[in-house]
Specification:
alpha/beta; Purple Acid Phosphatase, chain A, domain 2; 28% helix; globular; nickel cation binding; GTP-binding
Length: 247
């Protein structure tokens, strides 16, 4: 199985379109197809912060739900938007406000369409994706080996938010343990969530959130080639959003 796992898009539709072209896909009627039969997989956080979250949602819905030519796992931003669309009282900050502004600017019928499409995409997709034929697990913020196969509340929190301690840094960001440093499994675990300047390889894990929405790049990890393909961001640089590791 040949796959291209794509990092956090966060509404950066132009970069996503450019990445698919660089990966060798042809866009037919809005759906990317590859002559080698490659399968795209999204690590989550499709909306928020970037300029075209709703366009990204429609694009991924067509690919994953309607044409069943790709996979997607939700991130914490997807989870929050899903709860918003269900009518829950969620705080419109940390990027959700940008997606809601796009949504509320639409005519009523278009609002209903994007709401139903996103809810269907979210409900259609697993919390994390296990693909034995690619020796791969895709999870938004990562997953420990002992959690694979489980679906309890602790796993939900870990997969959506990472290995959080409950404490916060001075800049307000949550303190997260470096779970990847202790990973000893044989399967690839590919994730995003934490923006890094370049894909971070640690044991058999790779973080491919290269901070496109913060002026970095949008990246994909290809298997079985074990290659990274990236396109530069068109968004303003926000240096303080990137995390560094003592590797």
């Amino acid at each position: 199985m040949k796959v291209d796992i794509i990092g956090d898009v966060h509404g950066c539709f132009d970069e996503l379109f450019e990445l698919f072209q660089k990966l060798g896909y042809t866009i037919n009627d809005g759906v990317p197809e590859h002559e080698d039969g490659r399968t795209p997989i999204f690590v989550g956080d499709l909306p928020d912060r970037g300029p075209e979250s709703l366009k990204v949602i429609h694009f991924v819905y067509e690919l994953v739900v309607k044409h069943q030519k790709g996979h997607y796992v939700p991130g914490n931003h997807d989870n929050k938007l899903y709860r918003f669309f269900k009518g829950n009282n969620v705080q419109q900050k940390h990027g959700l406000e940008t997606t809601v502004a796009e949504y509320e600017a639409l005519p009523t019928d278009q609002q209903e369409k994007v709401k139903q499409r996103f809810k269907e995409l979210y409900e259609h997709s697993p919390l994390y994706h296990v693909l034995p034929e690619a020796n791969l697990v895709v999870a938004h913020a990562g997953i420990r080996e002992d959690m694979i196969g489980r679906d309890d509340k602790k796993v939900h929190t870990f997969v959506l938010y990472g290995d959080i301690t409950g404490e916060f840094h001075e800049n307000g960001m949550p303190v997260r343990r470096d779970w990847a440093a202790d990973y000893e499994g044989s399967r690839w675990i590919v994730y995003g969530h934490t923006p890094v300047r370049k894909p971070r390889f640690k044991n058999k894990t790779v973080n491919i959130d290269t901070g496109c929405v913060f002026g970095g790049a949008l990246s994909a990890f290809r298997l079985p080639e074990e290659e990274i393909v990236s396109v530069p961001s068109k968004q303003p640089e926000v240096p303080e959003k990137f995390r560094t590791f003592d590797d």
